[in-house]
Amino acid sequence: MSGWNNYKTKIRLANIISTPSNAPLVAIVIFLGLNYYFLRGAEFITVSLICMFFAVVIPSIIAFAWIKNRNLEIDIPNKEDRLYPLSWILLSYLLGVIVLFIISAPPVITVLMFCYFSNTLVVLFISLFWKISIHSVGVAGPVVFLIYVFGYPGLIFLLLVPLVMWSRLFLKRHTVSQVIAGASLGFALTTAQIYFFLGF
User: Fold this and answer.
1) Domains in the chain: boundaries
2) Among 51, 56, 104, 131, which lies 20 to 30 A Cα-Cα from 94?
3) Which of 25, 185, 64, 72 is nearest to 121 (CA)?
């Protein structure tokens, strides 16, 4: 009986970790946090609203509408079902990049939005053939930005990545190779783009 209770506790813990690590929820934290770090007053409000609209609101509406229409699980476990919503979410991220560039938002914020676009584009192509962990990609990428902005103190956020990977494995949503590939892709692509657009 104690073993069963222990298993149920781990399931609850895995869900507690997995649910907030969905891309739109991570986007709320990373964009608001970095906008607050770089901006104040009206600029903070304006840039944050733009980020929330294109990185959170529109992607969430697209995903939930697709899930409801097709009667899918919230995680959209089948890779084939992810292609259509990801395509439209890509457009939202791209529009976000354009608007942030036009209003001269801080370069870090604009590049972060671009990384959401480009990383998702790569995930979309991979999803044509293989089910990579979007959760792992979606956490690893923002962690790279936190390390870039805050330096050594930002390394503490690296702890989030293995926690998310474990949760997806324990919930049997992905294999070991899928979560490792997702985290590796998030780290590599985001680091390369930061280096290219912002330098070190």
Assistant:
1) 2-197
2) 131
3) 185
Range 27-50 burial, b when 16+ CB lie within 10 A, else e: bbebbbebbeebbeeeeeeebbeb
CA torsion through residues 172, 164, 63, 81, sign: negative
pLDDT value at position 72? Answer: 81
pTM: 0.93
Give yes or no for residue 79 having a pLDDT over 90.
Answer: no
What average pLDDT does the segment 87-112 reach? 97
Q: Mean pLDDT for the chain? A: 93
Q: And the tokens for 123?
A: 């995930």
Distance CA 60, CA 65 (A): 8
**How many angstroms from the chain centroid is the CA of residue 126?**
16
DSSP code per residue over 125-184: HHHTT----HHHHHHHHHHHHHHHHH-GGGGGGGGHHHHHHHHHHHTTSS-HHHHHHHHH
| Residue 152 CB neighbours (<10 A) | 7
